[in-house]
Amino acid sequence: MAPPRPVCVTGGGGFIASWLVKLLLSRGYAVHATLRDPCDPKNAHLMQLDGAAENLRLFKADVLDRTALAAAVEGCEGVFHVASPVPLDKLVDPELEVIVPAVKGTSNILEVCSTMKVEKVVVVSSTASVHFNPTWPQDKPKDESCWSDKKVCMENELWYFLAKTVAEETSWEYAEKNGLDIVTVCPCIVFGPQLQPVVNTTSELLLYVIKGGPNAMNDVMWEIVDVRDVADALLLVYEKPESSGRYISAPNYITTKAMVELLRKAHPKYNYVKCKTDVEHNSPITPTSSEKLRNLGWKPRKLEETLLDSIEYYQKTGLLQDAEGNGYSCHLPEMFSFFHAAK
Ligand SMILES: NC(=O)c1ccc[n+]([C@@H]2O[C@H](COP(=O)([O-])OP(=O)(O)OC[C@H]3O[C@@H](n4cnc5c(N)ncnc54)[C@H](OP(=O)(O)O)[C@@H]3O)[C@@H](O)[C@H]2O)c1
Predict the structure, then answer these.
(1) So which residues are the signal peptide here (predicted)?
(2) Which residue among 10, 13, 191, 244 is least enclosed by CB atoms within 10 Å?
(3) Is residue 113 over pLDDT 50?
(4) How many Cβ atoms sit within 10 Å of the Cβ of residue 137?
(5) What is the pLDDT of residues 235-283, one digit of tens each?
(6) What's the gap in Å between 227 CA and the centre of ligand 1?
């Protein structure tokens, strides 16, 4: 019998993609992972994963380089498109830094998938493409029919949110026009232990909460999903023949204050961020429903496990040592200031 055809994961060294590659290898898949720089030590963890020596191949590819993407996708049965910039700092040129790689990168990979006759493509979108919808009824949980309004993203200079919305819209337009089988998954904020050695943007956000700022945060609603459950969701929608359309993966809600209390109870020695409870804020984050994904068989873990496993990972790797020592100093990622930074 011929061996099963491999699957490709773009941006394989990132926070979410590393867990996906690990999961795929553990389930016996052969994996082609694309990386911008396979020789960068920040990607060294991939070849250490169980099964990597036999079943993981690394390909050098920027998502803006269609020829390089084609070399990675050739022979693959399925593709998981995960690569997209998640910026930490204020953008100097949003078009160049985020919008082009997110949108053009997505259409490039989809075009390659069509040419290479890939059977199914899973595109990682975000609840960034769901939440910014001022016309959605306040009392109704947002579901997969809710789309962010690009004008609202633009007016508020929320470039990452705009990029994810346009990239997902572009995916659907392309798939419908070209008959490509795609599914999109929209995770909320992703926390959990890292496999990669460098700190990704959302882990930076949680480190900011634990290390205590320096600046206060609004006491707003957070939606949180575990990175291991996102990997499960991506594989689930890939493997289920009946999966179709968008899938929100946002199983847990908590306020800033409640999250700090939960973490402080287990780990009292950190400073934790101060919460402003008495201020008007402009957060558009309201409950969303992950019912569609749960109905497909998705079983995300409890929030407490995600938060405690994250803090334990940061402790173990020295990320919570004093910033003055050889520890890691953190700052609030710019893209979260809109919701979280207290004025
Ligand atoms: N973390 C979250 O809370 C969250 C929530 C919802 C959706 N998402 C989505 O999940 C995906 C992965 O995010 P993450 O949190 O795992 O962040 P991450 O660790 O920063 O991963 C992003 C990956 O994208 C790659 N990338 C960026 N620009 C690229 C380009 N031009 N060509 C090729 N690769 C490029 C990066 O490669 P380099 O290492 O070479 O920079 C990195 O591997 C993204 O699509 C993001 O929008 C994340």
Answers:
(1) 1-30
(2) 244
(3) yes
(4) 8
(5) 999 999 999 999 999 999 999 999 999 999 999 999 999 998 876 666 7
(6) 13
Rounded CA-CA distance 96/296 in Å is 37
- Residue 323 confidence (pLDDT) above 60: no
Question: What number does the ligand 1 atom closest to the CA of 36 have?
Answer: 40
Whose C-alpha lies nearest to ligand 1, atom 40?
Answer: 36
Tell me how far CA of residue 232 lies from CA of 180, 200, 298, in angstroms: 23, 20, 8
* Contact in structure between 59 and 43 (CB atoms under 8 Å): no
Which pair of tokens denotes residue 54?
A: 């036999």
Mind listing the pLDDT tens digit for each residue in 128-178? 999 999 999 988 999 999 999 999 999 999 999 999 999 999 999 999 999
Ligand 1 mutation pick, 86, 103, 108, max ligand atoms within 8 A of CB: 86
Condensed to tens digits (0 to 9), the pLDDT of residues 296-319 reads 999 999 999 999 999 999 999 999
Instruction: Give the tens place of pLDDT for each residue, 42-57.
Output: 999 999 999 999 999 9
> Is there a contact between 315 and 328 (Cβ–Cβ < 8 Å)?
no
SS3 100: helix
10 closest CA partner among 31, 30, 33: 33
The predicted model scores a pTM of: 0.97
- Give yes or no: 142 in active site: no
Q: Which residues contact 327 (CB under 8 A, 6 or more apart)?
A: 318, 319, 320, 321
Q: How many whole angstroms from 116 Cα to the centroid of ligand 1?
A: 24
pLDDT of residue 325: 44
Question: Please, what are the domains in the chain?
Answer: 7-191+221-253+284-301 (3.40.50.720)
- Ligand 1: residues within 6 Å at CB? 11, 13-17, 36, 62-64, 82-86, 101, 105, 124, 126, 164, 187, 189-190, 200-202
Q: Which of 164, 269, 292, 302 is catalytic?
A: 164
CA of 81 to the centre of ligand 1 (A): 10
User: Residue 124 C-alpha to ligand 1 middle, in angstroms?
Assistant: 9
